Amino acid sequence: MADRIELTGLTATGYHGVFDHEKRDGQEFSVDITCWLPFPDTDRVEDTVHYGELAEIAYRTLTGPAYDLIETVAGLIADEAMLAFPLLHAIEVTVHKPHAPIPHDFADVAVVRRRNRKGAFRAILSLGSNIGDSEAILAEAVERLHPIRVSSVHRTAPWGGVEQPDFFNLALELTWCGTPLSLLRYCQHLEKCAHRERKVHWGPRTLDVDVVQMYGATSDSPELVVPHPHAHERDFVLRPWEEIEPAAQLNGTPITELP
Fold first, then answer.
1. In angstroms, rounded to a whole number, what is the distance separating the alpha carbons of residues 2 and 39?
2. Which residue in 2, 207, 189 sits closest to 85, CA to CA?
3. In whole angstroms, what is the distance from residue 186 CA to residue 80 CA?
């Protein structure tokens, strides 16, 4: 049986809940995390899970963008931790909401989310930005995605017919330990953290994170069509992708021959 690290009682004010007053006023949440991993035979923090960094992931998610469900919050913490710490065999995240708006006496409300490496799959993501300090925004997103491989940053013309500044784009490959839809949710979470506003279709944005391809997983959800239905038309997707995976194919055609 694997060794484990336990982090309990991390508390922060967040704005999660289905009611307007919860998102306006906020309330106290707390998190307990259990990590299973083999402990090292060294005395080096680099050979284990840094629980200070683990706590930062949890705190940042609790205090970050507001969600209706604490189930979502717990899942985001678990997903980012599995990305950040390849040594982890599995993780369990419990989010407590002791002041939930329930009109009866109660001690606590808690949800538990678990992740492990069974069924993990590889995915190719395309990232872009053309508002704000785009290169810094992309660098922060890459840091939170913990990729296996990442391309250089490409400056590209906008696509879709909307007049706007050039984009900065890159591609990366990562290993994901959740479901395909949880990967989509995490990508959308990073966009929310970058204060993306969806005002104009194919318009300017602080951050865009698209799932382009998955290896070892499929999606039958209309929310996530993979391979990305427009990837073959987009040079800003293909050229960074080609840089990290030159032998890749898209629907049977080498990406080096596209668009």
1. 8
2. 2
3. 8
The reply to whether omega before 40 is within 30° of 0 (cis) is no
Residue tagged active-site, from 23, 97, 118, 192: 97
Looking at the structure, give the CATH architecture of the domain made up of residues 121-257.
Answer: 2-Layer Sandwich (3.30)
Q: Please report, as a single letter, which amino acid is at residue 172.
A: L
Structure confidence by residue, pLDDT tens digits, 35-88:
999 999 999 999 999 999 999 999 999 999 999 999 999 999 999 999 999 999
How many residues are given for the chain?
A: 259
* Catalytic residue check, 97: yes
- Cβ within 8 Å of residue 146, ≥6 positions away: 83, 84, 174
CATH topology of domain 4-116: GTP Cyclohydrolase I, domain 2 (3.30.1130)
- Map out the domains of the chain as residue ranges: 4-116, 121-257
Tell me the C-alpha distance between 28 and 12, whole Å. Answer: 6
Radius of gyration of the chain (CA): 20
* Whole-number pLDDT of residue 49: 96
Q: What is the DSSP string of the chain?
A: --EEEEEEEEEEEE--SSSHHHHHH-EEEEEEEEEEEPPPSSS-GGGS--HHHHHHHHHHHHTSS--S-HHHHHHHHHHHHHHH-TT-SEEEEEEE-TT---SS--S--EEEEEEESTT-EEEEEEEEE-SSSHHHHHHHHHHHH--SEEPPPEEE---SS---PPEEEEEEEEEE-S-HHHHHHHHHHHHHHTT----STT---S-EEEEEEEES-----TT--SS-TTGGG-HHHHHHHHHH-TT-EETTEEGGG--
